[in-house]
Specification:
Structural class: alpha+beta
Number of strands: 21
CATH architecture of the largest domain: 2-Layer Sandwich
Radius of gyration: 56 Å
Distance between the termini: 209 Å
Oligomer: single chain
Helix content: 10-25%
Strand order of the largest sheet: 17-20-18-19-21
Amino acid sequence: MGSRSLKSICLSLVALSLAIASAGCKKAQPITLACNATPPAVYAGEQVTAIATAGSTSTKKNTNVIYSWSGSGVAGNGSTATIATDTFNPGSYTAKAEAKEGKKGKEGLKHGETAECSASFAVKEFEPPTVSCLANPSTVKPGDTTTITCTGASPQNRPLTYTYSATAGTISGVGSSATFSSTGAPTGQVEITCNVADDKNHTANADTNVTIVTPPPPIPHVQELCSVSFTRDTKRPTRVDNEAKACLDQIALDLKQSPDARAVIVADSNSKEKRITAKQEKVAATRKHSKVEYFDRRRAVNVKDYLVKDQGIDASLISVAAGTGDDQNVQNYLVPAGATFANDVQGTTAVDETTVKPEGNKPLPVRHHQKATANQQ
């Protein structure tokens, strides 16, 4: 064997020896650990989950990886931990994890068998509540009440409490409803404030207004006064007799005591009188100067004539009308200032006073046999 062949064999053996030595001295990669928190931001009271993920772990048999966790509220179970945030204030927080690798009971004793990581998360500030305020009705009279409705909402559904205040009057309520009383408050606008607060001392408020108005004066109405009957004097059934004067004198007194008022006299005629008038109208339709007697109109005019001439009432303060009743009565009405007669009393027709002359209180004409009897006496 030549010297060159021997040299080649020796070189090959050296190379093989170096390769074997090199393979036997290769070092294992150190363990790695990565952490993350889910969700990354919560409100106090919501739970956070942290997960640790180990890398470059050994594949040898009988090796083990153990985890441990630290941090406020952190409770670990293997590679996963939960974090209770009930007592946390708003801010940034960290959950720390450690992983150890190695033979069971000897984890982490060798270099490169331990790794650490941190999972960061944030606790957010609770958002303040919102509120709206409404008064119904928004306009009241002095002494009246109105309902105040307060509508509050918390973005995180925190429990809410309500309070109220008013610049005048009184307000009281429990929960989202209150009652405002205007008793003692001046007329005008009252500002009402609805306040809401959550259990984290966040507050909100809203205003509404209630207007207190003086009620308008009551609408005056027509007053029904005494009535006069014309049934006693059968010979002159439209004449104002002495018994009627007591009623009319009182009407005159009412008008004198109410200078802004006026009177309306409404007279009726019975069915017999209406038939007489109807016949006379039929005749008058063909005879130019035929007389037509309107009993109701004459009664009304006679009553007015008495009030004007005997009681001194201004004629412009008295109106006369015909009614629709089936009787021989006159109904008298007092119409205060601001009242409308036609609104309160229907079914009357104004009398044209230029066509009806008052009868006056003339005595009955004396017949001839009555004169003779009087002379004998």
